Amino acid sequence: MEKKTMMRSAETGPGPSPGGAAEAERRLRRVGPVTLGLTIPRRWIQDWNARAGAPVRMRRTADGVLVVRISDEPEIPGPARISVEGGAPDEHLLRHLVAAYIRGAPRILIEQPPKLTPAARQVIHTFLQRTVQTA
């Protein structure tokens, strides 16, 4: 059973101040087998008027600083195009499908000349079963 702990943050303010940027110390928490999560101070969430499910953009700078932005307008990616090479391992197709799914592609187009092989169709079928929820 996971031990729950209470944490206090050292907040210096909800947003950038004239003398410097706001800071808070947090611990990474395990939220899945390979996923870590980070909580954001409540005051910051209120000041940003953020909601659960809001798109968040992250960028790591060359000096190791993590920049996090809450965006009003989600960036909607275009359709993903996956071209399956003849003789490529099935894992490559699966990796491309997962990458497109994680990027949030609204549509994934898969091409394999002259037509999809039965093995490629099976990979696609398995991927869809694992990711697409049906009511």
TrEMBL record:
Compositionally biased intervals (Low complexity): 9-22
Source organism (scientific name): mine drainage metagenome
Stretches the record annotates as Disordered: 1-26
Protein known as: Phosphate transport system protein
